[in-house]
Design brief:
The complex is a heterodimer of chains A (about 600) and B (about 280).
Chain A: H1 6-9, H2 28-32, H3 38-68, H4 78-114, H5 122-141, H6 173-201, H7 214-245, E1 256-257, E2 260-261, H8 269-302, H9 310-323, H10 341-367, H11 376-399, H12 401-407, H13 411-441, H14 447-473, H15 494-524
Antiparallel strand pairs in A: 1-2
Chain B: H1 2-20, H2 33-63, H3 79-108, E1 115-122, E2 125-130, E3 164-166, E4 170-174, E5 179-185, E6 190-193, E7 200-203, E8 209-213, E9 219-225, E10 238-243, H4 245-253, E11 256-257, H5 258-275
Parallel strand pairs in B: 1-5, 4-10
Antiparallel strand pairs in B: 1-2, 2-3, 3-11, 5-8, 6-7, 6-9, 9-10
Helix pairs in contact in B: 1-2, 2-3
Classes of the chains: A mainly alpha (about 600), B alpha+beta (about 280).
Chain lengths: ~600, ~280
């Protein structure tokens, strides 16, 4: 039976939080540089993340040039290749995806969507960005020190990460990497506390937790997870820094490096892996959950239909968040940890597939009997579902401990995690930018450029990562500068690798068009008005577009959830959350 | 409508690629065909789910695309449908997990009749050690490593003196005889990976890890390092040659014991010193 929950959707609880105006900046610097307005901080975070993301994009081109055309480019040495691999991975996961979802979308959308004037701690929020920027600068600096950046792989596994056989291991590359991560975590913690407390404490009158848009549920849950997971990475970085600089042996057993006995002894390399993945697995969902939330909203708005199974969607987000803390060692099936752990972690890992599958069903069922507008955000949302389902399903190979054994450490893993936590969340980021750009600027992004951007990115990325699974299946390990032609290959992989590289170069190139569109549309985009998508959630109902400092004249009252689309009898095909409309013959109960 | 065509083509194209791909795993040479079978089951289940979800989505986009006058249905929840989908998913997941765990139990349970072979990794080559006449491997540790004792065999352990030391990256194994590989490293993580055997495991300095398998056909198989170990990681190659029992015995006779190896090394050193 359909539960329309009409009672709940029309209640207006009493005001719990006092209306406080955030501090007003008076100088130009206070407004635009050291801004304490979450909307500016969001743009600063996103701009910085995209800028460093472009570095990662170029690094991926260089990597693909080597893999697709080995021996052609003299300047790509094995050392350089491993530095590219490492920095590409680290930048994408931490400095781009985490930063843009939480620091970017979190800052912009949380206050607007929950009906707050700003984050609860604006000054700390400003500091968060500046510490993040410092972390990025330290990271960039590592490209310019002797020996270059670390080439330890983004997982930074000791002992190799701090030894001379790895680029930057015996020089300053690894030190700067660890310092940068430590700074990032400090910066994130300041922002993260803000996001969580704002969602819990600053929701406007009537905005109950179960009326929050799923975007906020995704970002909120991811933030809480990040606050719990990043400390594990923090201590791991500090301990490795001590091992490298002070001669402690947290992760270092007795070692003989290239014939020379080192002074380490008694530490455990596997301890680092546990700490790293205790952070690293939740990290996957720290990126995925905001994407889950945002894509739910994109689909609902552009299919003119309520999200199917909202409560189930909320619980799925929370359950995935909780379970993701007890699956970390599925990254370590062949690490040499006690093999009996495999039973536990394979079971928890496959259980997490169930709430994840529910989310996929509910997205598709939201489309069912909808009124689907094939706008650019909707196209990216569809692209997300395809790539996420694909990447999620290959997770069932790698999560199932014994199937993981032959595939582990091969290109199959690389293909899997790029599809599921690279391509899929980035599809959502693009969709979200096309969706919210009009709110941020008052203008629409150019549609024709958007179409080209979507098609090349979607088809291109699939052409990159789908065949890559087969490079792994045939047995090619990951992190190989070159594979040569070993006998076990049932067919040479050169042609396939060249094809993947060509596709990757094209996908990368079209992102330039997207960036151009962002700047071009600032001036030349079609005027958007306040609510071009006719969306129901609060951020589209601010008195000004772009929203001014403080967001609202008078804080809005919220009467319903964010998904009252195509409600029978309603005057329009959506009802804003702050619309107090009731069906004829019913009375509002306060 | 382009997107509907694209979604259908992605499903058909992926299936066609999968079925016609020459890039498939290399023919197996060990007892772990259970792993291959589980992998194939997983391919069928996940492939069916992928096709079903994406095709259903394509159908929705086709059927419910916006047209003038078209309106969406208001349909917030459907408990029965949600429970039903949860149930089916749980069954599908269990169908993959349960056989997987059964095979894992076998994977981690070494049969009693398995012989031992130590695989030794260091930047960036492989060496091997076999128990000598006494049938027991002596203890070893990075602590003992020196020019005349590159594997770090404990010189005070009597079980180690007759151990056979095999350098040069190639080792022989008798066919149809279960073998337990004891994996050891003295510098960084490595991973002894022979694609034909399917089994692999990291070697971690400071501890000994293991895998086991039974070679099922003769031949020479290339060993790679599968855990990133520094700049020359892709060049860390070795060979495992699987032969009949008699040939294996012949090969075994030619190997040096630790004692012989060490005295040769000492002799070599003094020759070198004299030469200087």
């Amino acid at each position: 039976m359909v539960d329309r929950g009409s009672d709940d959707r029309m209640q207006l609880p009493p005001r719990e939080v006092e209306d406080v105006m955030p501090p007003h900046a008076h100088s130009w610097i206070g407004k635009y540089v050291f801004s304490q307005d979450a909307k500016y901080i969001a743009i600063q975070y996103s701009g910085t993340a995209v800028a460093i993301g472009l570095v990662a994009l170029v690094l991926s081109w260089l990597m693909r040039l080597q893999l697709g055309f080995p021996g052609t480019f003299d300047f790509i040495t094995a050392e350089a290749y491993y530095q590219f691999v490492t920095m590409h991975g680290m930048i994408m996961v931490i400095y781009l995806l985490t930063a843009i979802f939480l620091g970017g979308f979190g800052n912009y959308l949380i206050p607007l969507m929950v009906g707050a004037r700003d984050m609860v701690f604006p000054f700390v929020n400003m500091l968060s960005y500046w510490v993040y920027l410092l972390a990025v600068l330290v990271l960039v600096a590592s490209f310019f020190v002797p020996g270059g950046p670390t080439g330890a792989g983004w997982t930074l596994y000791p002992p190799q990460a701090v030894l001379s056989g790895t680029p930057g291991g015996a020089q300053s590359g690894i030190i700067l990497m660890l310092v940068s991560l430590i700074l990032f975590i400090i910066g994130f913690t300041m922002g993260g506390l803000n996001y969580a407390v704002t969602v819990l404490q600053a929701r406007t009158r009537g905005m109950t937790m179960m009326r929050l848009p799923l975007t906020i549920w995704g970002i909120f849950t991811a933030t809480v997870m990040a606050l719990l997971a990043f400390p594990a990475l923090f201590v791991a970085c500090v301990m490795m820094l001590f091992d490298r600089l002070l001669g402690t042996s947290f992760f270092m057993p007795t070692l003989v490096e290239l014939g020379e006995k080192l002074s380490y002894g008694g530490g455990s390399p596997i301890a680092f892996q546990h700490l790293f993945w205790f952070f690293g697995h939740p990290e996957v969902y720290i990126v995925a959950l905001p994407a889950f939330g945002i894509v739910s909203d994109l689909i609902a708005v552009h299919a003119r239909k309520n999200v199917f199974g909202y409560r189930m969607m909320v619980w799925a987000i929370v359950i995935i968040g909780a379970l993701s803390f007890i699956v970390w060692a599925h990254h370590m099936y062949v690490s040499g940890m006690h093999p009996w752990f495999g039973f536990f972690f394979a079971t928890t890992t496959l259980i997490i597939a169930i709430p994840t599958a529910i989310k996929v069903y509910n997205w598709v069922l939201t489309l069912w009997k909808g009124d689907i507008h094939l706008t650019i955000p909707m196209l990216f949302a569809l692209g997300f579902i395809v790539t996420f389902v694909n990447g999620g399903l290959t997770g069932l190979f790698l999560g199932n401990v014994v199937v993981d054994v032959p595939l582990s450490d091969t290109m199959f893993v690389v293909a899997h995690f790029h599809m599921v936590m690279g391509v899929a969340p980035i599809m959502v980021i693009f969709g979200a930018i096309y969706h919210w750009y009009p709110k941020m600027t008052g203008r629409m992004l150019n549609e024709a450029m958007g179409q080209i951007h979507f098609w090349v990115t979607f088809i291109g990325a699939y052409a990159v990562f789908f065949p890559m699974h087969y490079v792994g299946l045939v047995g090619v390990p990951r992190r190989y500068f070159e594979i040569g032609e070993p006998e076990f290959l049932t067919a040479p992989v050169d042609g396939l690798n060249a094809f993947i590289s060509a596709a990757a170069l094209i996908v990368g190139a079209v992102q330039v068009l997207f960036l151009f569109n962002i700047f071009w549309s600032l001036r030349h985009g079609r005027k958007a008005g306040g609510n071009p998508w006719r969306a129901a959630s609060l951020e589209w109902h601010t008195p000004d577009t772009p929203p001014k400092h403080g967001n609202w004249d008078e804080l809005p009252n919220v009467y319903r959830w964010a998904y009252d689309y195509s409600v029978p009898g309603a005057p329009e095909d959506y009802l804003a959350q702050n619309d107090s409309w009731v069906p004829d013959g019913e009375e509002r109960r306060l | 409508m382009l997107i509907v065509a694209a979604l259908v083509l992605i499903v058909l194209g992926s299936i066609a690629f999968h079925l016609s791909s020459p890039w498939w795993w290399t023919p197996i040479a060990s007892n772990w065909d259970y792993i291959d079978n589980t992998l194939v089951i997983t391919f069928w289940i996940t492939g069916a789910v992928f096709a079903a979800v994406v095709l259903f989505m394509a159908y929705c986009v086709l059927k419910f695309r916006h047209r003038p006058g078209h309106k969406a249905e208001f349909d917030p929840e459907n408990k029965r449908l949600e429970l039903w989908l949860t149930g089916v998913t749980t069954i599908g997941v269990a169908a993959m997990l349960v056989p997987g765990l059964f095979v894992w139990k076998q994977f981690v349970t070494v049969p009693d009749e398995a012989t031992e072979l130590e695989v030794f990794g260091h930047q960036w080559s492989w060496a091997y050690r076999l128990p000598g006449a006494d049938g027991v491997l002596g203890t070893a540790d990075a602590e003992w490593v020196s020019a005349e004792n590159p594997l770090g065999v404990n010189p005070h352990d009597r079980f180690g003196k007759d151990d056979l030391i095999v350098e040069g990256g190639e080792v022989y194994l008798p066919v149809d005889q279960p073998v337990k590989l004891l994996l050891r490293s003295i510098d960084v993580l490595h991973n002894f990976y022979v694609p034909e055997f399917r089994a692999k495991m990291d070697m971690v300095p400071g501890m000994v890890t293991y895998i086991w398998f039974t070679p099922t056909r003769t031949g020479t198989f290339e060993a790679l390092c599968a855990e990133y170990c520094g700049t020359a990681h892709p060049y860390m190659r070795g060979f495992v040659t699987v032969v009949e029992a008699e040939e294996y015995q012949e090969w075994l006779q030619k190997q040096l014991t630790f004692e012989e190896y060490a005295s040769n090394a000492r002799a070599g050193q003094s020759v070198q010193l004299a030469g200087n």
